[in-house]
Amino acid sequence: MIAFSEVTKVYENITALRKITFSIGKGEFCFITGPSGAGKSTLLKLIYLAEKPDEGRINIAGWDSDRLKMSSIPYLRRNIGIVFQDFKLLSNRNVYDNIAIALRIRGVPEREIKDRVHEALKLVNLRHKVDSYPDMLSGGEQQRVTIARAIVGDPTVLLADEPTGNLDVDNTAGIMRIFREINAKGTTILFATHNKELFRHTGLRVLTLDGGNLVSDVGG
Amino acid sequence: MIAFSEVTKVYENITALRKITFSIGKGEFCFITGPSGAGKSTLLKLIYLAEKPDEGRINIAGWDSDRLKMSSIPYLRRNIGIVFQDFKLLSNRNVYDNIAIALRIRGVPEREIKDRVHEALKLVNLRHKVDSYPDMLSGGEQQRVTIARAIVGDPTVLLADEPTGNLDVDNTAGIMRIFREINAKGTTILFATHNKELFRHTGLRVLTLDGGNLVSDVGG
Amino acid sequence: MYSVKLGLKSLWRERWINILSVLTIGVGFFVLAVVALLLLNLELASRRLPEKFTITVFLEDEISQRGILRIRKMIERATVVEKVDFISKEEAFEDLKKSLKDSAYILEGLDRNPLFPTFVIRLRKSAFDREKVEQLIKEIRGMRGVEDLVYGEEFLGVVSRFRVMIRLLSITLMGLFFVATVFVCYSTVKILFYRRKEEIEIFKLLGATGGFIRLPFLVEGSIIGLLGGLFSGGLLYGLFEISRRYVAGGVPIITGLNPVLTVVAILPVFGVVLGVIGSAIAVGRVKF
Amino acid sequence: MYSVKLGLKSLWRERWINILSVLTIGVGFFVLAVVALLLLNLELASRRLPEKFTITVFLEDEISQRGILRIRKMIERATVVEKVDFISKEEAFEDLKKSLKDSAYILEGLDRNPLFPTFVIRLRKSAFDREKVEQLIKEIRGMRGVEDLVYGEEFLGVVSRFRVMIRLLSITLMGLFFVATVFVCYSTVKILFYRRKEEIEIFKLLGATGGFIRLPFLVEGSIIGLLGGLFSGGLLYGLFEISRRYVAGGVPIITGLNPVLTVVAILPVFGVVLGVIGSAIAVGRVKF
Ligand SMILES: Nc1ncnc2c1ncn2[C@@H]1O[C@H](COP(=O)(O)OP(=O)(O)OP(=O)(O)O)[C@@H](O)[C@H]1O
Ligand SMILES: Nc1ncnc2c1ncn2[C@@H]1O[C@H](COP(=O)(O)OP(=O)(O)OP(=O)(O)O)[C@@H](O)[C@H]1O
Ligand SMILES: [Mg+2]
Ligand SMILES: [Mg+2]
Q1: Which ipTM did the prediction report?
Q2: Contact A194 B36 (CB under 8 A)
Q3: Is the pTM of this model over 0.80?
Q4: Is residue D92 part of a domain?
């Protein structure tokens, strides 16, 4: 599903990723961990094509990132659900619209959108906040809206960047449960987190980054 | 130092805080915990006067929140260092300026600012990012800039809202160490977090909120 | 389509800034329209100038009716001629008396009518051409039965220079004002675009196509343009009505502004066009 | 002070949007300046009109030198009079001959000079007052030695009506254009302010005072205003120079625009003032 081979990403003066090689199969649930600044978010950005690799090749669902035409990027992204570390909610739209926008972009009819948005909100325990605007939500609530937006489109790949950083134990457990369910239905999941508790006893695959290097790849 | 008596805060349709009463002495280190949406951030907002209570009274360093003139709010805030849950970094300024601005607002001379900013950056391990802009930083790095900005002014009260949500274990330990040091020098600290690990074995005071109610007040 | 609805919603969501934009564009259009009308009417007025220019042909005292007819036909054949009037000796004398007004008594001592029968040639206002006029004058001078000919030789030159100047000025000023207005439109939309950079970034990351991103701006731009156009049209019409009603007899420079209602009707259309073009330029190519 | 530096820095940081603002304001000023100059010159031209208006006083044929002097003194005492010229019988005859031009031969048959000695009174262009002029006319008519008096009674009315109209039009249009320009300034600063709402919010939370927040906007607004003023001044001067050099003989409507250089110099000052006022209004009261 996703294959990196010798991928290097350099920002101005810093090498965020150095010769990273790994591949993730369809339906896998894989954690990416490492300290702050290790390169976790950068790795995810390369997958959703927000950044281009400086060296090496990336293959996503059969598409080679080098040879991808710019006009087909939107269509590729529609198969990817993303939980951004900084949420990226639209501050001038309420919770409903923030989630619905992911479907509207795909041209899903409005009636179907309504059902699916409400279902997603129910999953993250935020049905009572459907009309709130982002700045009326607590940090954890915003994070859950972002999660709902990422999963509402039934993506084939889910990229979650520190999705539980602002959530308490119970909410985190709830989110993990949802992710496991989605994964069971066939969605490939990449989950970047610094919180080792989340995968300690799961037996799932864990990629560990440190200073841009892939230092371990265990489990799975 | 900070005293709440029967404080209630209502947002449109939701009661974020219900008849909260507690008081924190000078130099105390107090945690505020509770699940997502419990009212932790709201409680801090009342202290730094970003929100007004609907009922009850708040006294901060001898100032009654009711009787405070609007023009003296800035001067009160200068004694408070805040780590915002959503960082609130200035996206069009680099790390140096983001931290320096807290001192410039106070009219500190530019030469002194330079030393103090570099010292704060050293504490949070970000001296190499001094010229970066916020969107060139990882989530954890942004969070540490926010912490540096909160402590650079040697505040008498430090309010930290989920300051380690995006930080790995090592960085979290580093930040906790800094906070203990600052506290030892006499700064009163309120630390809102959902991460029970942070205070489990410290013996420090912990206020627990749930659904807007103060459900427990232990330790200290 | 949702993308269109997005534009409409955003119009309402950011209504204050949009109202500012509409007013800014409206004022720009209004200024443009007023200046355009002033210049157009100045141009029209200057076109009417040569109409007032006449050539007076004095015929011989004893010319026959046939001779008069022959000369008239000759003159009428020229393309620059609008109208030819014949004034008999007697009529000419009456005219002179009138033009002397209070000094007409000086004619009292005259024992005979000293004037000639004359042709007064009015030149055509459109297609005014100095060379052709001079050509005609030369021809008339050469005709039999023509005693003399009076024409404002100098005046002729002044008129055509004035025309050229007015036209040059119109074009320069109109050009400048047009650029200014387009510029206000463009910068208004560009500012809207700047404000929404973050939103666009998020849209792209969620898989929106270029069209989906661009369309709301075009919708918004066109509606802002439309409203700006309507607003300026309203202002113009208001100015027109006020000057017509409250200023004694109307301010001719305004009430005389000929196609004021046409311009009022065209402004909204103009607004939509500019709004769309401005938006398209402001959004530019969408990169992923 | 740091707050001032903040304004300067922000100018540079957001240089693209600021350039747009400068250009927008510049164009607004330019339009305002051109219109203002056109109207001012129209007004000045209309002021010159009554100067051309003259009263002609015909004196009795046999009037003595002393009588002439007496009447002259009387007339010169009136405040509306600019200049009085005496034209003797002989001079008057020559004048008539000239004004008849090619028809002067009609005078050949006259056996005596039928004209009177006359006073030509030129009226003062400033302080033109219809009532006073009529008062003067009445007085002159009543004087001994005055045979008759010719004056453009109707023309007089037309002139003063025209003056009123021009003035009304000037005031209305200038007012509209001024509002439009202030509006463009205001909305430009307001948009800058909208863009920085978040920054201001953060500043407040960090303990910034109202002055600290407001000052950078005032600095920025005044500099944008200054640059806008300089830009419009440049445009105006450019238009002035181009029209002077490249249009044969100069376009009088532009080159004749009298205080063009003064206006060019005033525009930047005007810009700073408007920029500061606009910023102050746009920022409004800072609430905590
Ligand atoms: N646009 C950019 N320009 C320059 N440097 C960047 C940019 N984006 C990221 N970096 C740097 O690359 C490194 C890796 O960043 P990344 O965001 O991938 O870290 P991370 O593993 O996600 O960290 P965290 O856990 O703190 O979110 C960091 O040192 C960061 O400063
Ligand atoms: N401006 C607002 N308008 C309306 N409701 C609000 C507003 N701010 C907060 N709330 C609501 O008040 C409740 C408490 O919010 P608060 O931010 O204090 O929670 P929290 O304890 O900080 O949660 P978290 O751990 O998720 O950050 C939440 O349900 C939130 O939706
Ligand atoms: Mg990250
Ligand atoms: Mg919170």
Answers
A1: 0.80
A2: no
A3: no
A4: yes
